[in-house]
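quick one: flavin-adenine dinucleotide bound model?
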Amino acid sequence: MENCDVLIVGGGPAGSSCAWALRRLGAEVMVLDRSEFPRDKLCAGWITPQIIDSLNLDLEDYRRTRVLQPLRGFNSGLVDGRSVAVRYAEPISYAIRRCEFDDYLLRRAGARLRLGAAFESAGFSAGTWVVNGSIRARILVGAGGHFCPVARLLGADLGKGERAITAQEIELEMTPAQCERCAVEPQQAELYFCADLEGYGWCVRKGNYLNVGLGRTSNHRLPEAVKSFWDGLQARGHIPGDLVPRFKGHAYLLYGDSRRPLIGEHSLLIGDAAGLAYDFSGEGIRPAVESGLLAAGVLRRALDGDMPAALADYEAQSAARFGQRPAAPRRALELGGWRTRAGRFLVSNAVFARHVILDRNFLHRQTVALRPWEGDPRYM
Ligand SMILES: Cc1cc2nc3c(=O)[nH]c(=O)nc-3n(C[C@H](O)[C@H](O)[C@H](O)COP(=O)(O)OP(=O)(O)OC[C@H]3O[C@@H](n4cnc5c(N)ncnc54)[C@H](O)[C@@H]3O)c2cc1C
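yep, here:
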């Protein structure tokens, strides 16, 4: 039997951020993940600068052997419609490859790793969890993404009763000749909203890689929407015609639609397991990182003393950071009639795209980074 203070199920950005902070706060942490790392994760791989700040990442170290594409702007428009280019003087985001990023964060965390080992069973008695019959922990953290088994254990109705967004995506390595024929600017991510504004497609170029995908608030006709988006990009000569896509799909919850519990007995959920992705953009990495950091702070206190009060504080801190969950699930975009027509016009309006779509809803520039390390010598 192996012992630890905290067992984190899932080594994605939520789990590794929590592990990183907890290790610096002196806890014995183990991360269990069913995949061997590096592993891939379906994602556009776009991260906001607040994440780098929150995790105190050394970009020079990171970019030495990994893809890190600074983004200095976005094109915003409609699928098959006109678009507008919004440009910024400084990098306002970065494009990374999840296989590299997640592996880097997990190794840097300094936790004991159990990789290639799925969560199979858990029992709780006398204040202790026993997981897979071989790991004993005082606290269990669910960071296993949308289908996290710990979320199920805490009562989440995975899948069936939930209104998830669904997305399909592909990340392709281009040959030098294809790179030359690719009209997607590396520093300019592209967002194309669906005609009903119930989702959007994206095109991001990072190094030799091209990432194309489309997500919608329901999976109704998703494969057709993705195919027509891809075909349109090729027909316009925007991406090389000889790239052959094999899209893969995944689902996850937007914050306003999620009814998942955040805490349980000696346990809590972070990241997609808790359903924390931003409503409008679907950005999930920042809330995953931030929830992991918030959780680490309360778990340190839980290990030191009053477990129920500390866990309850995680709920309070999450509400303060991500907002109160609405009483009834809401849609990110509840539009119709004139609102849809106005929205279709506005997505390619330069002022609206910069200030409302990008600054407020995609970049969350008004929300400063969490900095748990600031002034705390344990992080040095
Ligand atoms: C197509 C697509 C594009 C996206 N693009 C972006 C984007 O550009 N920017 C952004 O911010 N967000 C994006 N997101 C959302 C983002 O990918 C997620 O919100 C983010 O990965 C959540 O991180 P996490 O650590 O909670 O979960 P994950 O990254 O999903 O990590 C969960 C981990 O748990 C492990 N696990 C699962 N089940 C078990 C088990 N039974 N036992 C052990 N381990 C298990 C998995 O192997 C995995 O490593 C996108 C999502 C999709 C689907």
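The first helix runs from residue 13 to 24.
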